[in-house]
Amino acid sequence: MELYLPYLHKYKVVEGGNLPIGLILCSGKNEEHEKLLQSDKSNIRVVDYLMQFPPRELLQAKLHHSIEIARNRLLKDKEYCYS
User: Where do the structural domains in the chain lie, given as residue ranges?
Assistant: First the structure.
């Protein structure tokens, strides 16, 4: 993945296109391995996949948490643009 993403960026992304993202699906992720990947710098994302749906309440809580993170990032970007 660490070689494939730079290759895609260099040879396949059209001018003005978005950077490629690598997605690794795991039945369980190891926080230490994820840190070693430096996924925030390499545009690699590691996610757990589930064999069963979790309870509705948990899904709603995760969705609301994700929305809050996105909202905070947008506000931070907006503040950065106007400062």
Answer: 1-51, 53-83
